[in-house]
């Protein structure tokens, strides 16, 4: 059975169709890349799946049960966590407190003690143990991105939606983030990763799906999809695709 089944989702913003009849299935254990040009609808899809936005039409099932229409906290407690593109930790709270709060409120930890224990484990997993007692405001961008990951992991999700966790990182930081995504997958967590960096898609994902102007235009194995002319055109424009064809593979 699919872990996530998105069926014929539509979402418009005052006439602008951000998601146009999108259907997507994620099986347990998969790591799937979600790519597409700016404004394609990627974040909107994550917002609709995580309950931040209500779809205009269509349905979403998680582990066989409908989740569309539920509030974000109820969806999170079912085992679906997401990161935010713009990371906004509570700046005056420590790194540990930020993660413990996520474990408590979105992860349904039974007590403060359990939330703190879960938070420590998530911080260790993300390489942030040394930062645990520092204020979140002291972290670098890479540190804040890792904190965002630790917060979502502390919710003990079965499905993790990663919205550009690597944007703005330097090459060494990206390699570290790649390792983390692989380690998360090795724990059996299913991952949907919104990504602009092809390195992450090619090295971490089993499958890739492409959104373009709100429509899903490709879905398949990474090398297959990235060799697709429609996908190259969507990204780089028709002229580039023509030149690519002239030059050959
Ligand atoms: N809350 C909103 N109100 C109005 N329009 C919105 C809203 N959220 C998104 N949009 C519009 O919907 C379209 C899809 O946006 P979305 O942020 O989902 O794209 P994206 O693929 O995530 O882009 P990026 O790669 O730039 O983050 C865009 O045209 C955007 O301007």
Give a structural overview.
GO terms for molecular function: ATP binding. Keywords: ATP-binding, Nucleotide-binding, Transport. This is ABC transporter ATP-binding protein. By secondary structure, the protein is α/β, with parallel strands linked by helices. It is 40% helix and 24% strand. It contains ten helices and ten strands. The strands form two sheets. Strands 6-7-8-3-9-10 form a six-stranded mixed sheet, sandwiched between helices.
Précis, in short:
The chain is α/β, with parallel strands linked by helices and about 250 residues long.
Q: Whole-Å distance between the termini? A: 37 Å
Bound molecules: adenosine-5'-triphosphate
Number of helices: 10
**Radius of gyration over C-alpha positions, nearest whole angstrom:** 18 Å
Q: Write down the overall mean pLDDT.
A: 90
Low-confidence stretches: none
One letter per element, helices H and strands E, the order comes to EEEHEEHEHHHEHEHEEHHH
Helix content: 25-40%
Count all strands and give the number: 10
The main sheet orders its strands as 6-7-8-3-9-10
How much of the sequence is in beta strands? Answer: 15-25%
What summary fits the major beta sheet? 6 strands, mixed
Overall 3D form = globular
Helix/strand class? alpha/beta
What is the fold's blueprint, element by element?
Blueprint: E1 4-13, E2 16-26, E3 31-35, H1 42-49, E4 57-62, E5 65-66, H2 72-78, E6 80-82, H3 95-105, H4 112-125, H5 141-153, E7 159-163, H6 171-186, E8 190-194, H7 198-204, E9 207-212, E10 215-221, H8 222-226, H9 229-236, H10 238-247
Parallel strand pairs: 3-8, 3-9, 6-7, 7-8
Antiparallel strand pairs: 1-2, 1-4, 4-5, 9-10
Helix pairs in contact: 3-4, 3-5, 4-5, 9-10
The structure holds adenosine-5'-triphosphate.
